[in-house]
Amino acid sequence: MAERIALVTGAGGGIGRAIACELARERRAVAIADLRGDAARSVAEEVSAGDGTALAVELDVTDASSVRAAVARVTGELGPVDIVVNCAGWDELVPFLETDEPFWDRVLEVNFKGCVRVTHAVLGGMVDRGFGRVVNIGSDAGRVGSSLESVYSGAKGGVIAFTKTIAREVAAAGVTANTVCPGPTRTPLLEGMAARDDDGSRLISSLERAIPMRRLGEPDDVAPAVAFLASDRAGFITGQTLSVSGGLTMA
What does CATH list as the number for 5-234? Predict the structure, then answer.
């Protein structure tokens, strides 16, 4: 496969890091974008040590000027973005009646509007060049709901619907758009949420029991699905929602 330029948000750790490393193994030049510059640089060094091409980029998906600057830097140093993976995310486990508007705003800004901003910044160039892959990281919470994640579930449901609409609008231009929905996955975000919960260990155990494969997902379980949808091989697949959840969601 020819080298293409991929931009992965939230790539400083967890699922985003695994996706960036998998794309690099498939000869993609990868822009490692994350709010945490040190984390982005660490992953970029890891990719480069494995003979991949990587660029660390500080990116705040809640800030339109940051998004524009990041895309301009990637374009200038690597080339036009052929593949975008929107993986940046944030949440806390809170009953809906205990949340407030600032909490809602943060969840929506990171998980939904961040995806919209980054996609908007790169999609026009993909259409102009006649090739593009948009892979948005949703969540099974956005497909079936998830207790204590009401606004996050809504945001990820929005990502799924947004991706389908984009897929319809740009299909004739050779651009595909798909959503990958991880189930409960062992990431720093999940572990941090569990640590802040008085019943965190019980939460993890209950999630493991609910999954037919009887374990949490790992970031490396998700990355190959994203890499396939981002590849030239997946050119006739668009508007789809794929769960990677050990059988927790079958639909």
Answer: 3.40.50.720
